[in-house]
Amino acid sequence: MKQLRVTLTRSLIDQKPNVKRTARALGLRHIGAFRVHKDDPVTRGMIFKVKHLVKVEEL
Questions:
Q1: CA angle 2-45-52, nearest 5°?
Q2: Bridge partner list, 37
Q3: Which pLDDT tens digits describe the chain residue by residue (59 residues)?
Q4: Which residue range is the domain that position 45 belongs to?
Q5: Contact indicator for 31, 11 with CB cutoff of 8 Å
């Protein structure tokens, strides 16, 4: 199965609470933090919600 590397590139300060919770659920707590997730519709939906804050790479 494909994997995605998600990196937080912008701050969570001044973001709406649901955006902050989504980023934290992805395991992203500070700028530069990254996590590898499996590529599935649930993860893609979470990434779509925080797309303005993250960079995504396929592995």
A1: 100
A2: 4
A3: 899 999 999 999 999 999 999 999 999 999 999 999 999 999 999 999 999 999 999 99
A4: 3-58
A5: yes
Nearest CA to 37 among 12, 55, 58, 15? Answer: 58
Looking at the chain, how many residues does it have?
A: 59
- How many whole angstroms separate alpha carbon 59 and alpha carbon 46? 18
Q: What is the CATH number of the domain that holds 10?
A: 3.30.1390.20
In total, how many domains does the chain have? 1
> What span, in angstroms and rounded, lies between the C-alpha atoms of 59 and 52?
21
pTM for the model: 0.91
